[in-house]
Amino acid sequence: MSVPTAPRRAYGGDTTRQEVPMSAQPEEAPAPSAPAPAAAAQLLAQLRADRRADTWVPAFERDWAKALEDSRHTYSLTPLYDFVRTWQLRLAAAPAVDAFMDSGRDETGFVDLDDVLGAHR
């Protein structure tokens, strides 16, 4: 019976090869950038100056409180980042919504989806 002279790892493999550390992010995909720390305050200032302030500011404050609470429970900033991105998109889409509403398109002839599908149980 012959005895190996070179040390081998228990799982087999080359002991001379360098280990390459793995990354959670693929190299070709950049990590998403986080919103600026003052982004929520800037959004709130924009909302207060908007003509929809009466309805949007309370909704913003309610959503912000929920995002803060979710962030505290998960120990993650993701809920806050998602909140800021969502409200940034809402503000960015507002002019398009206004243009659609101001175009005079009549939607009274459409059928309500609940009428088609029936009442939810």
Fold blueprint:
Layout: H1 39-49, H2 53-74, H3 78-102, H4 113-117
Strand content: under 5%
Specify the overall morphology.
Answer: elongated
Q: Structural class per helix/strand content?
A: mainly alpha
What ranges have pLDDT less than 50 throughout 5 or more consecutive residues? none
- Characterize the main sheet: none
> Overall mean pLDDT score?
79
The overall strand count is: 0
SS element count, helices: 4
Any idea what the radius of gyration is?
A: 27 Å
Q: State the separation between the terminal residues, measured CA to CA.
A: 76 Å
Q: What is the string of helix and strand elements?
A: HHHH
**Helical residues, percent:** 40-55%
Question: How does this model look, in words?
Answer:
The chain is mostly helical. The chain is 52% helix and 0% strand. The protein has helices spanning 39-49, 53-74, 78-102, 113-117. Helix 1 runs antiparallel to helix 2 (53-74), helix 1 (39-49) packs parallel to helix 3 and helix 2 runs antiparallel to helix 3 (78-102). The radius of gyration is 27 Å and the shape is elongated.
List keywords for this structure.
4 helices, 121 residues, mainly alpha
Compact summary:
The protein is mainly α and 121 residues long. It is built from 4 helices and no strands. It is elongated.
